[in-house]
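Renewal narrative, Specific Aim 1. Our central claim is that a sequence can be written position by position from structural information alone. The example that follows is taken directly from our test logs and has not been curated for this report. It begins with the structure tokens describing the chain, in the order in which they were read.
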């Protein structure tokens, strides 16, 4: 496929600072496997997971492939993380029970066993402090969580909160400055824990929250959450680690717009989404949360308005120096990726056959 370049005209847009292109580890390109890095890992640098037991991997964020084994006994994969030279993804099996899989390279996957008695889906996984932590739905008594200290092979059950099933954990990150895992529930409540053991510490109840919240990687020492606010508009909130709200902004002021992905990298925040028909997409970008204004929403994102492109997940790889967005084309029946070094000028990249919802994307950090 011939790559097609798209550039954003930022004239008249407030709060945007266009810098020169910079790469920490060389210019991306080629799609060839990287040389073995320090620590012995030489596999994929980017992995995405989705519905119908699909996974994708890339060495540079530009060239992508589907994993060859189709994940075997998996239904929907909800989250993926990298640590200790291994990838781990979680979700649910074809029977609708707790599912977890590991990969040494991001391409070939092996199913592992959840803790005995844990039969519910896991929505989120993160790596930090030398172990993986995953969490998800309620089992009828408690929200479920589990921990692995051996690269995702064996898992120990954790009860993160007092008994109760009023909500579930929807997303989870490891915040590097505080060395804490931070989780957010579908009730808009954030918690933190250094080691996953009970009890997890309450952080905040999200201000102006409505639904569909997702915690994001952002500035060190900050908690970045995106979702839908009480106006039913896509929005983002920035909190300090003690739970104080520092800034919030609407990504779009159109009620019908759907929020899909949000990422921070190279000094810039980038948000993606679609309208309710999912045939017109948008993105919004700024150098601070406060500068994310609905007026800055732009429809020139790669493939917007063509072939029903549906951008779903976005991430930034600081080592490679690129943002990558992934989604699918409704009309073209294929998954598609696009990449950018600055979050402003985008190039369409690889396509893979079969339009499948993409639930999560992660990078080697």
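The sequence written for that structure reads:
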């Amino acid at each position: 496929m011939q790559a097609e370049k798209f550039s954003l005209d930022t004239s008249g847009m407030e709060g945007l600072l266009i810098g020169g292109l910079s790469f920490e580890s060389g210019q991306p390109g080629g799609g060839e496997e990287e040389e073995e890095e320090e620590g012995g890992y030489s596999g994929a640098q980017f992995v995405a997971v989705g519905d119908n037991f699909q996974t994708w991997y890339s060495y540079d964020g530009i060239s992508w492939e589907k994993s060859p084994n189709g994940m075997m006994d998996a239904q929907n994969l909800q989250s993926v993380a990298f640590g200790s030279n291994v990838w781990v993804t979680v979700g649910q099996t074809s029977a609708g029970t707790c599912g977890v899989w590991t990969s040494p390279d991001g391409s070939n996957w092996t199913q592992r066993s959840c803790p005995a008695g844990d039969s519910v889906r896991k929505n989120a996984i993160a790596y930090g402090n030398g172990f993986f932590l995953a969490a998800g739905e309620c089992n009828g008594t408690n929200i479920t969580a589990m921990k692995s200290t051996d690269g995702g092979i064996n898992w120990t059950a954790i009860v993160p909160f007092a008994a109760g099933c009023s909500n579930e954990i929807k997303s989870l990150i490891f915040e590097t400055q505080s060395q804490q895992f931070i989780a957010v529930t579908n009730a808009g409540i954030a918690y933190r824990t250094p080691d996953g053991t009970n009890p997890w510490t309450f952080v905040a109840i999200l201000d102006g929250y409505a639904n569909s919240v997702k915690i994001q990687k952002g500035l060190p020492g900050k908690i970045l959450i995106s979702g839908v606010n009480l106006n039913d508009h896509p929005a983002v909130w920035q909190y300090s680690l003690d739970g104080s709200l520092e800034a919030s902004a609407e990504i779009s002021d159109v009620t019908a717009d759907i929020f899909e992905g949000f990422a921070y990298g190279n000094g810039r925040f980038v948000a993606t989404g679609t309208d309710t028909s999912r045939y017109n997409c948008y993105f919004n970008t700024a150098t601070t949360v406060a500068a994310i204004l609905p007026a800055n929403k732009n429809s020139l994102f790669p493939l917007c308005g063509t072939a029903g492109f549906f951008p779903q997940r976005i991430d930034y790889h600081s080592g490679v120096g690129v943002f990558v967005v992934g989604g699918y084309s409704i009309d073209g029946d294929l998954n598609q990726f696009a990449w950018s070094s600055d979050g402003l000028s985008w190039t369409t990249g690889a396509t893979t056959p079969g339009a499948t919802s993409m639930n999560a994307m992660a990078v080697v950090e």
